[in-house]
Structures are given as structure tokens and as C-alpha cells.
Amino acid sequence: MLVLNRSPIHGAPLEASDAAVLGDAGAAAAMAFYAAEEAYRPTPLHDLPALAAELGLERLVVKDEGQRLGLGSFKALGGAYAVARLAAEAPGPADQMTFACATAGNHGRSVAYGAQRLGARAVIFVPSGVSEGRIAAMAAFGAQMVRTESPYDDAVALAAEIAEERGWALVSDTAFPGYERIPSLIMQGYTVIAEEALSAMSEPPTHLFVQAGVGGLAGAMAGRLATRFGERRPKVVVVEPERAACLMESARAGRLVRLGGGGGTVMSMLDCQQPSLVAWRILERAADAFMAVGDEGAAQAKRRLARPVGADPAISGGESGVAGLAGLIRAALDPAARDELGLDARSRVWVINSETAAP
């Protein structure tokens, strides 16, 4: 299913606050922060010539965030960056601070990692359905785990409520009214992905297919491309699970929409029912289309990366991590979608493997 962005503000410049976070100066600040980290290494950008030929494209490249900072996910760049920024601004010592968040796994690992680096405390609220392996991976960084029986969006609300009561610093990667700065800082951390990828490309991409849960990664990438390239920016296609397509439904309705209930999808890191306020504000301007993919499409894309053909390298990606690629494959094989998105033999497409496959 494909929904083109028909918003009257599609293509308009970002709001000034978002442009400041995702523009040249904001991206440079994030790059400088990580360049000073001993563990920092750019993640690889892989060419997939065999799959590009199969899909009728000039070039297909995948940025492999499964190797990011040893945490296995792009989210390593967001939570830890926000924690460090908040600690630097706090009046007291960092080791007296408590950072809290709700997460299905990867964001919590980043927050816990950032807190551990500072000698601070992290409290992680875990929604229902999160695997024991993901919980253990967060606890390994010394975080206190709080299990809930709620879906992700309700766990976010619970974490915000308790953090407010106890004076903890809430580090949520989804924005809501009155809470926008920290999610924006997290998105600024994600711009490192775009800076690394674009510097490794001989030519800018014509298209980006990028997955979304609440939209932080998609918003960061779309916003960075908009601030860097302006009217010449690549086309951005946002891909979500069919059972949790809150951004696509928001685009269809022309307003931010919250879906009802839990989606239930193998793309568990994307199983979100309400977009981030900041991400939606950016994507309404800077995304060109929204689409949804089913669980089988994600599983097929995962297998295609793991067991490639020709000269394509083998890449470990989880179902959530390869959702953008699943969207590309679906669109490229559909003549109507190819035409609507301008996909052809001259297209240079960029996708992101946002997380490695779970053990």
C-alpha cells in the first residue's frame, strides 16, 4: 500500500527549530561528539549490485547500522547522545542523575550505555512482548528494568509520569506536546548516519527508503536531506509495518493519527501506534510517500540480505532493520508504484539496515 504525500506543506522548508537541529551546524555537532569517542567507527556502506540489477535500478546501497558502537542498532547514536547533552547542562554531578525511558530494546540499550559511561543510573520501562534477550541486553549496562503489561505507547506515558514524580530525566525518543527538545536531540544524533553515508557515496542518492516506528530515524534522515539539498533533495519513502502504520495513516488523514490497540508484528521495533510529534512535523514537509509492508515481506528481505546472490555481501539484519529494503522491493516490483515514485534504471537508492538480527 502506497500513500503519496498530498499535504499542502509538502516540500515546504522545515520549521526553524527543526532546521537548526538537523542542519549543517547540528549535524556537525553530532559528528564532533562521536569523533571524540574512542569506540567510534563509521559503519559500512555496502553496494548490492546483484539486487540492484534484479530490481531494475542503477545502484542500491545499504548502510549497515547493525555494527554501530557494538550495540547492534542505529539507536546507539541517539539515546547516549541525548544523555551526554543533558548531563553537560545539569547543575549537579552526572553520577547523581537518573535517566528514564520506555523502549522495546534498542533505545533503552543506548540510554543505559550513555548513563553507564557517566556513572549515572538508568531506569528502563519495558512494554509487553519484549523478549528476554532484549531485556538482558539492556540490563547488562546496569539499568534497572521495570516490566509493564502495556503496549509501547502506554509504556512511554507511564515512564513520563513516574520520571516527573521522581525528578528523573526522561529520555524519550518520541515527542509529545510540551516534550520536544530531547527527542530532537536524539534525532540530531542520528544525523551521523546521513553524514557518513553521503560522504561515502560518489553521487547523492535519488531515493531513500527508510523504516519508521514513531518516526525518529525517518524524520532525522528526511530532515537532514532537506536541509542539505533543499529542492534537489532525494525522494524519501517512509516504510512501516502494515499493522502499525501510524505515519501512513496520518498522511492519509492529513493530521497526526493514533491507531487503536497493538499491532502485533515481527517488526517489533516498529510496532508503534502514534507518531512522534516532531517526526511527523518534519515528515509532513520532507517525506514524499508512505507505505506499509507485511511480515512476510520483511522476512523475505531479511533472508535476501543474509543469503545474497552474485557479488552482494551477506548482511545480518533483523525484520525491523530491513523494513526499508522490504518496502523498496515491494515498490520496485510494482509497475504502478515504480511510476509514482520515479524508480527506473537511473535510480540510485539508499536503504538503512537499522539493526542486526537478534540471536
UniProtKB/TrEMBL annotation:
Its cofactor is pyridoxal 5'-phosphate. Gene3D superfamilies: 3.40.50.1100. Its EC number is 4.3.1.15. It is an enzyme of class 4 (lyase). Residues 38-333 form the Tryptophan synthase beta chain-like PALP domain. InterPro entries: TrpB-like_PALP (IPR001926), TrpB-like_PALP_sf (IPR036052). CDD domains: Trp-synth-beta_II (cd00640). It comes from Phenylobacterium montanum. GO terms for molecular function: diaminopropionate ammonia-lyase activity. Keywords: Lyase, Pyridoxal phosphate. This is Diaminopropionate ammonia-lyase. It comes from the Bacteria.
